[in-house]
Fold each of these.
Amino acid sequence: MRLSGKLRFIEAPAVVSPVLEITLHSFKLFIFCAMPLDSTTNQDFPPQPADCRRCERLATFLDTVKMRYPDYHARPVSAFGDCNAQLLIVGLAPGMHGANRTGRPFTGDYAGILLYQTLHKFGFASHAESVSRHDDLRLLNCRITNAVKCLPPQNKPNPDEIRQCNHYLQVELREFVRHGGKALLALGAIAHQAVLRSLDLRLKDYLFAHGAVHTLEDLPVKLYDSYHCSRYNTQTKRLTAEMFGQVFTRIAADLSDHHFQGE
C-alpha cells in the first residue's frame, strides 16, 4: 500500500475546538505509525500485521472467534505507543478477552493491570489503566508489541507460528533501533527468544532469567527480562509488583544515565 503524493493534511482554523485539535493530532500520529515500513521487503507478507493471514490455524481460529463475538477486534493486533520510544516491551500474544477484544496490546484483561500501573508509576504512561483503544491513554517514550500478533488457541502459539510472525517483530525492532531505541523488555521466555531471533542472535548466548540484563552484540540496545505479568504469574506470586518494579527501576535508571553500548 502506498499513500498518494497528493494526500496532505489541511491545518484547522484558529477557532477549532481543543477536542478537534487533539483528534487531528491523534489521526496524524496514527497515520505515521501505521504506514508500511520501508524495511518490509518480503512480498509474501502484507505490509501491516493487521492484514496478515499467513498462519492458517490462527486465521481460522480468529474467524471462529469473530463469529462468536462479533464486536471483538478478532484480527492481528498491532503495536501501541510512541513511534520514537526508547523502550519497547514485547509480550507473547493477544489474550482472548483482552487485546483480541479491544485491539490494543494488554488492554481489557488481567495481564494489563500490573503492566499499565507500573508504566504509569515510572512515567511511561499517562494513566494507570488501559480500557480501550478509544480512551485517551498515551504511552510516553514507550511502545508495546507482541511476539505473535494473533490470538492463539489456549493462548499457546505453535513454534512455526512464532517463527512466521517473527518477520513483523524483526521489522519493528529494526525501526526501533533506527529511531534511537535503547531498551527492550521481554515479558517471558518466548518473547525473549523471539527478540533474539529477530535480531539474528544466538539463543544460547543470552539465557532468559527474570531480572537479567543483556548487552547485545554490536547493537546499541539492552535486553531486559521479566516474567510475564499474566494472571497466573501474579496470583501465584511468581511475579510480584515489587519484582516487576525492580525491573523498571533498572530500565529507568539506564535510560536516564545513558548506560548503553556506544554512548
Note: The CA atoms of residues 116 and 215 lie 26 Å apart.
Amino acid sequence: MSSLFRKYAVSRDYPVLMLLLVVALGLIFLANDQTQNGPAQRVAVDLMGRLAVPLGTLVELRHLKSENEDLRLENARLRLEQLRLREAELENVRLRRLLHLDYLNRYDALPARVLGRNRIGIHTLVVSVGKSNGVVEHMPVISSDGLVGKILHAGESASTVHLLADRNFRVAARVRRSRAEGIFQWLEGDEGELAGVHHRADVAVGDTIVTSGMSSIFPKGLPVGIASRVEIGQSVLFQQIRVRPTVDFDRLEEVTILRSGWNTLADPFEFRPAGF
C-alpha cells in the first residue's frame, strides 16, 4: 500500500512541480527585462531554489525505480537458473546410481527418460526410446532400485512400459536369503504379494524379494520388494506374504531397458542397488 501511495504521490506532484518551474522561469525572464532587481526576480530565484530539491528527488526516484525493475528481473533470472542447476544436479545423482550398477555392464543396457504415466486401466509409463533404438516388446525395464516392468508396446521413437505395479503383471520371484520361490503379483494400494510360497518355507519380514530367473523375459536377481508382512494360517497350504516394492513408481524419471545379454549371465545374483 505504501509503495502504491508513493507512486500516486509522485505522479500527482510531478505536473505541479513542472508548472511551478515554468512560472519561475517566466518570472526570471520577465525580471531580466527590468533595469534593476525587482520583487519578481527575487520571488523567482527563491522559487527556483525551493524547486531544486523536489525536482532532484523526482529524478532520483525515477532512476531508483528503473534500477529496482532491473534488479527484480535479474533476481528472477538467477532464481530460474538456480532451479535449473538443482534439477540437473539431482538428475546427475540418479544417473550416477545407474552407471555404478555393475549388473548393467553385463547387458546391452539402454537408458531412457520417463515421458508420461497412466493409472487408468493398465498402469504404464511412456519412455523416450523405441524401435529406432532397438527396443522391442517384452524387454525388461529396471531402475537403480530394482524391477520396473517390461516393454508393452514399442513405437518408433517412444515405448510403453507395463509396470510391476499393475494387477495384471506377474513375475517369478524368490526370497533372496532362503531361496523360497513364488509368483509376485500386485494388490490394491501400494503393495504386492508373493503367492504360492509353501507354509513351511523360511520367510521373514524384512526379506528382500528378487526375480528368480524362471522366465524367458526377466533375469534373476532383480530386486522386486521387501517382505512387509508374513502370515501362516493353520489350515492353509501357502503363506500370505505382503511385499512393499523397492521402486517408487510415482517418482521415476529415468529407467534402463535391458535389450539383451541376460541369457548368458554368469552370476546374475550380483545385482545390488543402493541400500540392499
Note: DSSP finds two helices and twelve strands in the chain.
Amino acid sequence: MSDQEARHSRRIPQNTRKVIASIVMVLCIAAMFVLPFEVLRVGERLLLLVGVFSYCAYTLHRRWWVPVFAFVVAMFISVYAVGGDLFTHEMISETPLQPLPTLDVSVIPGGESLSWSIAVEEGPRTVFKNAAATVCFYIPDDGLCVVAAHSCGLKTGEALIITPNTEDLVPGIPRSADVLVDSQYGVVLERITCPDPGREQLPLANEEDISVGEEAIIRTLGNGDIRVKVIGFAIVSEGHLLVLELLDDVEVGPGMSGSPIIQSGKVIGFFIGTTLSFIGPDFVLARPAVEVYAELQEYLES
C-alpha cells in the first residue's frame, strides 16, 4: 500500500465528519445557555464557542457564505443567552458614573396614574390626543407636581384635560392642569395637589443613601408596591440611570413612567422603562431622584 493510500485510509469519512460537526454545534449552543457567564467571559471563551460553531457549519456545507451566516446566528444566540448577564457585568457600576447632586429635600411621593388629553388643531378641526404617565412627587403646599421623569412632548403653558375614566385615577385629582415645563427629566404641572392630605413626606436619597444589592419598591397606587433589587448605575441613551432587577412577576411598562422607587424610607429614583428581555432577570431603569429634582429645581422653588 502506498503512502497516499495509507493517508487516505486514515481519513475520517465525510459523513462521519458531518455527524461530529453537527454534534459539536449543538454542544456549543448548549454551552452558551448552560455555562455560567463568569466561565464564558474568561479567556474569551464565548467568542471561541462562536468560532467553533462557524467552523463546524463550514464543515457541513463548504460554501464561503456559510461560516459568515453561522457567525451571525451564533452571535445572535449568544446575546440572547447571556445578554442580561453581559449588561450586568459590562455596563453597570456599583457607584454612580457621574457625580450625583447632594440635596436636603423632602417631597410627597406620587404613584397616581394620570391620563390626560390635549386639544390640537389639525387643519380645520380640533382633535384630542391622549397620553398617560405617573406622578413622581408633589411639592407640599405649592400645587406643583412632577410626572413621567422624561419628556412627554408638551409645551410650556399648555392646558391639559385630566380624563376621569382612568381605572386607578384617585379621587381628588383636579380635572385640569397647566404645563410649567417639559424636560427630559419630567414634566412639571401646576394646579395639582396630592389627593391624600395625610400622605407622609419622604426625603430624596443622596448617593450615600442608595444601597446597591438591597431591595426597594416601585410605588404604584394602581398595582400596589412592586419589589426590585438595586443593581447599580449605567449610562445609556436615556442618560445616567439606576438599574434595578425586577423581583415580582408582574408587568411593568407604558403609563408607569414616573413611579417613585423607595428604599429604606427614602425616594431613590423614578421609573422610566425596562431593558430588552433576555434569558435571565428583567431589568428596570430609573432616573436618580436627586438628579430629577436638581434639574427641575428652578421651577419647583421659584
Note: The chain has a mean pLDDT of 83.
